[in-house]
Amino acid sequence: MTTEAEPASTAILAARLPEEIVTAESVPGPVHARVLFQAAHNRLCGVEARQFRRLLDAHRNLLHGRNAEVERTIRDPAGNVKLMLRLGDGVAVETVVLTDAAAPGRGPEPGPPHRQPRRTLCLSTQVGCSMGCRFCRTGRLGLRRNLTTEEIVEQYLAARERLGPLSNIVFMGMGEPLLNTGAVFSAARIFAHPHGPEIPFKRITISTCGIPEGIERLASESFLAQLPGARPRLAVSLVTTDPMLRARLMPGATKLAGGAAGAAAALENLRTAVARYLERTGRPVTFEVPLLAGVNDGEEDAAAVCRFVDSLPRRDRCDVNLIPWNRVEGVPFEPPTETAVSAFAARILAGGYPVTGRFPRGGSIAAACGQLGESVSSVTTR
Ligand code: SF4
User: Fold this and answer.
1) How many CB atoms are closer than 10 A to CB 203?
2) Quick one: 66-378 is in which CATH superfamily?
């Protein structure tokens, strides 16, 4: 089952690929469409801007139009920022920019160290979420609606305008991105486009609670003709390999993946979808484990995660990301101790898998993993 209905919103040029602009806006040709796309993303040089001034003037409304207003900006001393955006129909979403001093190997996207601090934009894809994960604030809200491509791209524009260039994008804010694949995949194309933001796909991550059908779509989707075979990275929130515990912690994901066949089938269907993804694409997969004290943070739990990954093809492409759980008011879990996190990480490493740890960032402004949703729960729909 997927939820794909998109509410109406005014198209903005920044949220259309050049080939969409050329048909929808009746521009004279592909060069003009490319120029409009570049202008929408501030990628036009002065000479081109002078050459195409009339074209840009004619499309001024779409170039500068917005459907979302930034209502609040909250910063913490470490440079993490949460933006609350009010959308055209009155609902609100949150988007977060996490600043990392860029120690190599930290975070969900292992890679070379960057000279500049890494700025990761965590995007929301739905207003609320239907998955109801027990450890997540957004999951307590239920689903209001999907975001459109425009509304996802506008989170990026709002963050970039206020904070400057963004190095990484994760679809890991409010909502389950693989239940809104149309808008999410379109936004990913825009972000990676060579004439647009040009953020490499290897630095764009789609994080899912484990929707087999969505994982299959990610594997089979063609993203950009200019970058054949390239696609966003996949991160799967595994949490635990105990089917019954996973069903209790992640009831929505279990129901979608397993249907009437139940919890064990759900985990097996997820395993099969990830195995096919690895075989088909050869692209890396990150397994995320939010660690909850006394629930899934034992060394035996870590050993079970290793066995799960052992069962996959191309397991050399797999790594594990540990996310010490962040407190959410009214949610009856506790963060793990540092000792437990270290022991868990050591066991994953001993199993032969790279392990990264997401150190709690943004917790003081309720911007860390699992904490989003304040603006949705505290505002009324116009
Ligand atoms: S963890 Fe993700 S999928 Fe689960 S309820 Fe929260 S937003 Fe939804």
Assistant:
1) 20
2) Aldolase class I (3.20.20.70)
